[in-house]
Amino acid sequence: MAHYAFLNENNIVVEVISGIDETELIDGLDPETWYGQFRGLTCKRTSYNTHGGESSTGQPYRKNYAGIGYLYGHARDAFIPPKPGGNYILNENTCLWIKAPEIGITDGDPIIAADGVDFVTVYIAGGAANSTEVVMVNNELLDISTDADGYGEFELSSETTVLLVIAWNNISLEVAAI
């Protein structure tokens, strides 16, 4: 016995069934082809024993057992569960979502406490080259673009009480008064 996932036109799993073993043929066709033609949907085999790219019974198959709502990624040949929230990133090895690490200050006190300093520039170091890092300042999300070296910058006022960086990479913050 094997399991098969049916995909809609957007490669989202809409049904998972138990079927014949993947080595058997139906009318001379492999099960994926036959089931797909019979249902009029793309069909992909999935393994009940596979999770996070590992299998409890041997060779992992398509990274994860398919579930309704999962995305089938052709390039990865993997089933990817729905993203649980905005602060998650995809682990490319397991095709599972992991919570992005966060660094920051959220205690409600002003972050800038130096006399005579109204603004500071915060530099992001170690971001991905030419990408976007997400920063929360006073409960507003900012997208900070990084350059070819992975550096970006933004300003904070003396009224800033919350600074939260969703660390997509191993980034660090450096603060300089201006």
Account of the protein in words:
With 178 residues, the protein is mainly beta. It has 2 domains: 2-99, no CATH class; 102-177, Immunoglobulin-like (Sandwich), CATH 2.60.40. It has one helix at residues 31-39, and strands at residues 2-7, 13-19, 42-46, 50-51, 54-55, 71-73, 78-80, 88-91, 96-99, 102-105, 119-125, 132-137, 140-145, 152-157, 163-166, 172-177. The strands form 6 sheets. It has a 4-stranded antiparallel beta sheet, with no helix packed on it. The termini are far apart. Mean pLDDT is 76; it is low at 105-118 and 174-178.
Query: Could you tell me the strand content as a percent range?
Result: 35-45%
Structural class: mainly beta
The description of the largest β-sheet is: 4 strands, antiparallel
Mean pLDDT: 76
Order of helices and strands: EEHEEEEEEEEEEEEEE
Oligomer: single chain
Secondary structure tally: strands? 16
The total number of structural domains is 2
* Gap from first CA to last CA: 67 Å
Percent helix: under 10%
Low-confidence stretches at least 5 residues in length (pLDDT < 50)? Answer: 105-118, 174-178
Shape: elongated
Alpha carbon gyration radius: 23 Å
Annotation field: number of helices: 1
